[in-house]
Write the structure tokens for this entry.
Amino acid sequence: MTDHLLLVLQAAADTSRAYGEFPVIGARAFVWITAEVHLMFAAFVLGVPMFAVVTEAIGIFGHDERYDRLSKEFTRLLLVAYSATAIWGAMLVFGLSTLYPRFWAYLTTIFAPSMWVYAALFFVESFTLYLYYYGWDRWKKGRAKLGHWTLGILLNVWGTVVMFIANSWLTYMMSPPRDITPTTDPTTIKLWHAIANATWMPINVHRVIANVVFGGAIVGAYASYRFLAAKTDEERAHYDWMGYVGNFIAMSALIVLPFAGYWLGREIYQYDQSMGITMMGGFMSWLWVIQAFLIAVLFLTGNYYLWIGMGRIPGAERFQPYTKYLLIVLVLGAIVWGTPHTMIADSKELAAMGGSHHPFLGALGVMSAKNTAVNLMILTTFLSFLLYRRANVRPVVPWARGGTLIQAAMFAVAAGVVLFYGIRGYFVEAIVRIGFSVYQVLAVLACIAGVTVIDVLMARGAQSLGAIRWGKMPPRSQYALFILAVTFTWLMGLMGFARSGIRQYWHVWQVMQDTSQYAATPALGYASKMISLCVLIFLSLVAFVFWLGGLAEKSTFVATPERQGEPRHVGH
Amino acid sequence: MWATNAKIVGIVLGTLALYTLIANKIPQVQSEVPQALTLGANVTPEQLVAAGEKVYTGIGGCTTCHGLGERAPNLLTDEKGQGTIGARCGKREPGKSCKQYLYESLDNPTAFVVSGYQPIMPVMTKQLSPEQVWSVIAFLQAQGGSVDVTADDIAKSKPAAGALTPGASPGSTGGAFAGGSTDPKVIIQAAGCLACHKLEGQGQVIAPDLTHVGSRRDAASIRKKVLDPASSITQGYEKLAGIMPKSFGTMMNASQLEALVEYLAAHK
């Protein structure tokens, strides 16, 4: 807002060809689609290797070949997904260089060396993948297997560095260092100075975690499809287990993701308060209501999947009566979290509401209530998982009862801390209130860590009440996994719009103005159509990749002699 | 299997449709690019109010603070039982009409700060054109009061021909800041420094007092601070980081900048 004079001058000077046009859908839509689908594939090829290398490690160190086969099954899918990532990336680059030539020239002037490194690393990453996949059966035992696993780690390292480089370009657009102005000659900008901008590392961390979530969700969707298509009980059991693992990883990482998002949001506010206010209280304020709805869907669907899963666990009937209470907490939490607070409203809307806040809901729309709600939802989801985990075991350690009481006390204390600071937040200044969210988060994390440690120790030598009946899941549970995958993907598109959209009519925030016909940032309705289109393109292509994976090679699932007799999947 | 595939496709499409539908059902707000505002000599109060509402909710950025109940007073709705801004603006400051009070709020926002709020509002007359400023005033008057803004008010506020006007349209020729003067006092006046800083007994104490700035900063440090206000924040003023405009370096020419730096550096 403070630099209107600058953009006036820049716009006046902006006479030579700065923009191209793309037929039918327009330049912005073309770049939007190519960037979004490229990013989704990139998240896929970064998230799945994380999943693969962890499952391979479990296979190696846990001496369980199921995990090794699972890991290979996913690495196979990566081969085609890499090509798709590269194709969409090339389309994006061609789109930018022909439709936004001046902007693209500006970026390349600053970032050219990093782009060369990016290309080289993508090359190295691809060949590491080929070695990793095609060497799977050759380097299968002993030290060779460890070497193979190291390739998997390297694959993740290259992929992460590649992502960090690309993140530096887009975060520079959001938060260029403050000494860079519209008159700064881009040839004088030091590369590292541009890379290490205010939002670079928060975005890096946020995306690493989000990729784990995304990878887990896509794995879950793949497994659910295979489950529904399975012809034998063994195959169904295998893919039921795979779907559970995928969902578990996705939900576990999802619990951490809001904290990374909070850090990113804080950095945005610290970099430029007006950008932060635009994001949370300006024209994008409704977006967070949609986000709350989507996350509520994720929590409810993830918990629903766990609750259905308890039907296949002997002993789970002890806990099933409690699920209705968990559902009540989740629904109430979702309602509070989705309550609007700060929104742009015109005078008629304000008059209709009777004030800037709705008389009934204003009190629930503030951050004190929302933080309390989301922390209680996280605690509830963790409790769901704990009940699931303990469903078929009876601890035998002598301190089992005391341990359970301590766990219950930890939940009570965490919930108490969350509620206490939530309520107290209404009576203090905003600057103090913001600090309260840290205590709430720490209480929840401490509870999760403490309860998990006790549970692991308590499970030693625990009496089994019966093996999990893998595969004995109704089809609706698998459709829940599809909803999770679609919702995660849509949410990724939505948050991408938020991150990019808060720049508004700037290519590079307060440095390079967007003077094209598409400079205005569209409303959420238009954005949602674009997001849905991108998700549809991505999921269709992923379905094709899955189909190709099945076409090239049958599932790596092999019914082992042990599993043909008694079910082997006892643990989680 | 076809039935299963159809169910999966149905669930995927249904989920996408649901999210798209919800996103289209909520209020649609597009972030517009700031546009220049041209109002003729025969502009009517209705036209002013309509234009003012656009500025208020758009380029003015007023809604980022006003109406939230925390950062700044409500203007369009009741403020602590005193009514909307149009109803209360004439009673705020003794001897000041509604129009005068509102103009002062935009031109020198720290002159009168409503009790219970921090003096964080920027000088809007430095950021908006006279047309935009007066149309916002008309819009605010219309919130429970009567509009008496006229085209004369706009004309009187306009700087001399050739001067660079805030909010001018793209392609405007611009002009010399502070009339091209290298007199530091004229520059300080034109830049509105005293809206936040105090110097030689004048101005506000929101930002650091500049009376002895030369004893704290050398010329290079002052120059850097003017060009890049975020480069260093005086201890105790961290909360106000980001308030100082970043545009002074491009508004002033080199001679003006050096004159200002030299003048401030001499304030030991």
Q: What stands out?
A: Confidence is low (pLDDT under 50) at residues 5-9, 560-572 of chain A. The beta strands of chain A are 393-394, 463-464, 506-508, 512-513.
